[in-house]
Amino acid sequence: MLINESIENRLKELKLGGIQAALMQQNASGAFCEMSFLERLEHLLRAQVVMNKNRRITTLQKQANLRWPQANLGDLDYSLQPSLKKQVIAELLELNWVRNANHLILTGATGTGKTHLACAFANAAILCGFPVKFYKFQHLLAELIAADQENELAKLRKRLARFKVLVIDDWGISMLGSAQRHMLFDLVESRDKQASMIITSQYPKEDWYDAFGDATIAESVLDRIVHSSHTLNLAGISMRKVNGLGGECNE
User: Fold this and answer.
1) Among 134, 142, 175, 215, which is 20 to 30 Å from 169 by CA?
2) How many CB atoms lie within 10 A of CB 9?
3) Are residues 57 and 71 in the same domain?
4) Rounded distance, CA 70 to CA 119, Å?
5) In whole angstroms, how far apart are CA 168 and each of 14, 42, 111, 216?
6) Same domain, yes or no, for 19 and 105?
7) Are residues 50 and 162 in the same domain?
8) Within a domain: 251
9) CA distance 184 to 212
């Protein structure tokens, strides 16, 4: 008993809760008696790896701050979104576009579930260990402007660079001012070929240029996004209508 208590105390000190739980399981079950030392050790280490992975996923989910944290691609109802194809979703779910620092653009009318789908892809990325951050387009711009005014822009850019996937919701919802245009250009340029974005917008890509109010900057920004992206256009019925006025809204 003393040796068991001593080992448990050491595991607590080292924060090896997975090994501790697995060791208790081994001690309580005769099924492990026939296993060799190395087999039992492998079982302990595997349990710790699983716990570490789960802890990391929990941390990533918290810092992502997704609009729909429970969104799951497995819950997609293709009958309500006939424009989405299972094969295309399955290919995107492999997340090679994230590994290759490409982007995902989701367009469609209000209420068609763009934000929910973006969060579902974001969750898939999180489960693979990719850091994700969710922003409303206007909130992201406001944070960039505020950081610039407080001489904290470099620090914010460094923090944003840690996120392999940046979700920007409601892109192009309003005209951009001069400072906003340049902040957005700097952000997109810093992520070009380095990290991915998931962008949702009510407007087709062709209409994004007008919101910049500057053709040169618009071309510079969108050239770095549009030509390195996968695009899904949601043309189904409004999820607000499906869920009813009192139900959950998936936008």
Assistant:
1) 215
2) 11
3) no
4) 8
5) 39, 42, 17, 22
6) no
7) no
8) no
9) 10
Backbone angles phi, psi at 24, to 5 degrees: -60, -40
Kindly give the interhelix angle for 37-64 and 114-127, rounded to the nearest 10 degrees: 150
Task: Going residue by residue through the chain, which has 251 residues, state the pLDDT in tens, using 9 for 90 and above.
Answer: 578 888 988 999 999 999 999 999 998 988 898 899 999 999 999 999 999 999 999 999 999 999 999 999 999 988 888 899 999 999 999 999 999 999 999 999 988 999 999 999 999 999 999 999 999 999 999 999 999 999 999 999 999 999 999 999 999 878 899 899 999 999 999 999 999 999 999 999 888 888 888 888 899 999 999 989 999 999 866 665 555 544 445 56
Per the confidence metrics, is the pTM higher than 0.90? no
DSSP run (H or E) holding 105 = strand 103-108
- Residue 9's domain comprises 2-63
Please give the Cα distance from 132 to 164 (Å, whole number): 6
